[in-house]
Amino acid sequence: IEVQGNIGYALTAGHCIPGGNGTIYQGNNHNNPVATYTVIDREAHPDYDISDAYDFGMVTFTGANGSTPVIPALQPGQDNINVGTQLDLVGYGQTESGGTSVRHHKVMPVDDASPLLLRFDQSTGGICSGDSGGGALHSAGGTKVAGVHSFGTQGNCAGFGFSVRVSAVYDTFIRPYIDGTPYQPQTCDQCLDAHAQLGLCGGALQAC
Fold first, then answer.
1. 87: left (phi > 0), else alpha (psi -120 to 50), else beta?
2. Is the Cβ–Cβ distance between 191 and 171 less than 8 Å?
3. Hey, CA dihedral for 165, 163, 184, 199, is it positive or negative?
């Protein structure tokens, strides 16, 4: 999402970055990449251990140069995504024919949008196992990464797919990570979304 000299910053899902630093592969086929980059730092959103709705991760890598492709993260002032907005879902995940190393994409309308989550009706296709960390791309005003693929509701990937909403954490997590400044708290609406939308305190919310 950003390059500064030979240092690059990538956005992914928080659940994609445990273990060692690893390597980033660039290209349409991760078994035959056009470039590779060495990861030197990674960090999940500080609230990811509280809720899957904060399933964001940032990665720092070396080896970037002028030819390293950059798709910026969608900032809050640029986010006009609502139900029906068409986003391009990109990933290397499982297809109807099984696993693949090739990048695929599918343009889909947003089925539901909340402060932290973008939902897609996957009855005709969508994200699946192996697509986690991939981008939901928004083309209005220049292509931006609007969502990060996180999870689905059915094992066959035919239910609903969810991407976490990038603009919600741009000022609080993404920009501070890149700039080396302290992380900031999320808004009350986002906090409520994180705990109620995924059922973590649904009963208490209903009682209230």
1. beta
2. no
3. positive
- pLDDT score of 9: 98
pLDDT digits (tens, 9 = 90+) for 4-39: 999 999 999 999 998 889 999 999 999 999 999 999
Helix (H), strand (E) at residue 106: strand 104-109
Contacts 24+ apart (CB under 8 A), 27-33: 27/103, 28/102, 28/103, 29/101, 29/102, 29/103, 30/92, 30/101, 30/103, 31/101, 32/101
Q: How far apart are CA 58 and CA 43, in angstroms?
A: 5
DSSP run (H or E) holding 41: strand 35-44
**Predicted TM-score (pTM) of this structure:** 0.92
- pLDDT tens digit string along 36-84? 999 999 999 999 998 999 999 999 999 999 999 999 999 999 999 999 9
